[in-house]
Amino acid sequence: MIKERNTSVKLGNLVLKNPVMTASGTFGYGSEFTDFLDLNQIGGIIVKGTTLHHREGNPYPRMAETPSGMLNAVGLQNKGVHYFIDHIYPSIKDIDSNIIVNVSGSQVEDYVETARLINELEGIPAIELNISCPNVKQGGMTFGVTTSGAEEVVKAVRKVYDKTLIVKLSPNVTDITEIAKAAEASGADSVSLINTLLGMAIDAERKKPLLSTITGGLSGPAVKPIALRMVWQVSQAVKIPVVGLGGVMNGQDAIEFMLAGASAIQLGTANFIDPAVTIRVINEIEEYMIRHNVSDINELVGALII
Amino acid sequence: MVLDLTVKSCEMIHKQYALLKLTQKDQLPEMHAGQFVEVRVDNSSTTFLRRPISINFIDPQDNTLWLLIQVIGDGTRALAELQVGDLVNVILPLGNGFSWPIKKDQPILLVGGGVGTAPMLYWGKLLKQKGYNPSFLLGARSKNDLLQLSDFAAFGTVYTTTEDESHGVKGYVTNHPMLKEGDWQRIYVCGPKPMMMAVAKEARGRKIGCEVSLENSMACGVGACLCCVEDTVDGNVCVCKEGPVLDIDKLKW
Ligand SMILES: Cc1cc2nc3c(=O)[nH]c(=O)nc-3n(C[C@H](O)[C@H](O)[C@H](O)COP(=O)(O)OP(=O)(O)OC[C@H]3O[C@@H](n4cnc5c(N)ncnc54)[C@H](O)[C@@H]3O)c2cc1C
Ligand SMILES: Cc1cc2nc3c(=O)[nH]c(=O)nc-3n(C[C@H](O)[C@H](O)[C@H](O)COP(=O)(O)O)c2cc1C
Ligand code: FES
After folding, report:
1. Number of H helices, E strands in chain B
2. Residue-wise DSSP of B11-75
3. What are the backbone angles phi and psi of residue A197, rounded to the nearest 5°?
4. Residues lining ligand 2, judged by CB closer than 6 Å?
5. Interval A10-23: pLDDT, tens
6. Are B176 and B135 in contact (CB under 8 A)?
């Protein structure tokens, strides 16, 4: 008889059928990928960063390839939360996954208002509060780089948001565990990490930066060792579940993040190389469970042998 | 869709260009001219992202997809080095493609510069096949950089320009009298940005409808990452999804 294996994990009250989610800004609203996979099989879909008002984002060029990774400077281009509610939400609310909105802003009031509006949407069981985007001039990351900034915005959002609140952390700090603890103390149900690392690329021939914003956010396999280290540190420092991301390309990477302490993982840049990577990673995690005779995926969380 | 295609042939046309022909057992999916594919470059360790390449031609006879590749870096070099029988992972077809002209009796001009001639071959074929009357204006640095001339000639008259006067009219495509004088119903153009801008300006001046095929750098190719945007009268649009072909009325240049 085939043994039933449990792949479901919890982030606060949020139940994921498997620990695999898609990272904000890399999977659109999911609909861009329906030619390649069945969205209903994914544990969670974190949609594009959403702000209170429409944002045009940064000028082109916004992307530069780097060794085993890429820099982006999209700058939170989105049509604003009202457009999301009226035009996008209706078409994605019935997907049998967890549709999670990544909420961004440049002022506390903007985060609060956006979160309040999304709180009313029955089909959105959680938000991921992006206090860590390196591509917006004002705010965004400034909240995520100090404990007082993180506390201020997380506390304010917690007051108006009563579903699962995930706080996404910036790696561009001296000690990420301090920010994680501040988010936990302010009412976060979970923390996700890492957002992109601030980086830069130069065209030597033209003596010019490759991005319109000069600096941008680094993602992909190049950041994985840093992400893994930070997930390890944060999972030692907080009691709330940790979501790990940064350079996950396959099932083995996903398992490494879970062993380091992540309850779930996200796939970002990997979607650009293989648009069906989420399904492959879900399958590879199950193969690992079979190979290692793991009956409940939660046994793997933080199971690193030292 | 994502397909593993087999290399049927891969030939250097001239030192800088390769013609890659890909096939599979099943019939290739329906593709429109001006659409592109995203190729995963497995044989280059320094190439991380997929590479967007235009559909150069679909040959229904031997079920092949042609990609015309200009070698400019590690990714394109690795593609040019593929061997017969190798498997190549591609996402296709992507983007919108060219829109059909209205009138069958008034001629149409397809302008290509450098490797920007690539999508024009298949577009010329489709136009001719549907009973339209396409001509081609192809520009390059030198005659060796003018590619697939005999293939083009099968679908319409070919005009050329070269910077060194080794073939056709001397100078850029905008120096060719046919661009300025022809009774064109519509102009389609793909090539380096300064060239497309110059042709767009000429078309505007003569009130001729014109579409350009942009080559903004891309990551996802499917409209998800917003890296490839072009600033248009409608705001930022994704070149990979709402393009690569855009009407010049939408452009800010
Ligand atoms: C829709 C679309 C269709 C295309 N069709 C074709 C085609 O049919 N045939 C073909 O040969 N090429 C085509 N290209 C361009 C092709 O994708 C690039 O030349 C290729 O990605 C370069 O990869 P590489 O690794 O060889 O060079 P890299 O090492 O990535 O680049 C070499 C140099 O070229 C610059 N560069 C690379 N790509 C671009 C770009 N898109 N815009 C501006 N500068 C760039 C880099 O900054 C660098 O300086 C197309 C591009 C797009 C977006
Ligand atoms: C093109 C692009 C756009 C992104 N947009 C967002 C965003 O809107 N909000 C956010 O929180 N993170 C955004 N990110 C960061 C990713 O969600 C993720 O944290 C990061 O890329 C690291 O994961 P990866 O290495 O798997 O891509 C973006 C990343 C990329 C590459
Ligand atoms: S390349 Fe990702 S949106 Fe166009």
Report:
1. 5, 16
2. EEEETTEEEEEEE-SSPPPP--TT-EEEE--TT-TT--S-EEEE--EEETTTTEEEEEEE--SHH
3. -95, 135
4. A 23-26, 48-49, 72, 74, 76, 102, 130, 133, 168, 195-196, 219-220, 223, 245-248, 267-270; B 225, 227
5. 999 999 999 999 99
6. no
Predicted ipTM? 0.95
In terms of Cβ atoms closer than 10 Å to its own Cβ (0-12, 13-18, 19+), residue B62 is exposed
Residue A148's Cβ-count burial label (10 Å; 0-12, 13-18, 19+) is exposed
Residue A229 burial (C-beta neighbours within 10 Å; 0-12, 13-18, 19+):
middle
Which of A32, A61, A273 is nearest residue B40 as measured by Cβ atoms?
A273
Instruction: Measure the CA angle with vertex B200, ends A73 and B67; round to 5°.
Output: 65
Confidence category of residue A143, pLDDT binned at 50, 70, 90: confident
Q: Are B68 and B50 in contact (CB under 8 A)?
A: no
Q: Where are the domains of chain A?
A: 9-57+69-198+216-300
Which of A264, A270, A231 lies closest to A250 in space, CA to CA?
A: A270
* Single pTM value for the model: 0.96
Domains parsed from chain B with CATH numbers: 2-94 (2.40.30.10), 98-209 (3.40.50.80), 214-253 (2.10.240.10)
For A9-57+69-198+216-300, CATH gives 3.20.20.70
* Interface membership of A232 toward B (CB under 8 Å): no
B49 CA: distance to closest CA in chain A (Å): 6
Residues near B214 by beta carbon (within 8 Å), at least 6 away in sequence: B196, B230, B239, B243, B244, B245, B246
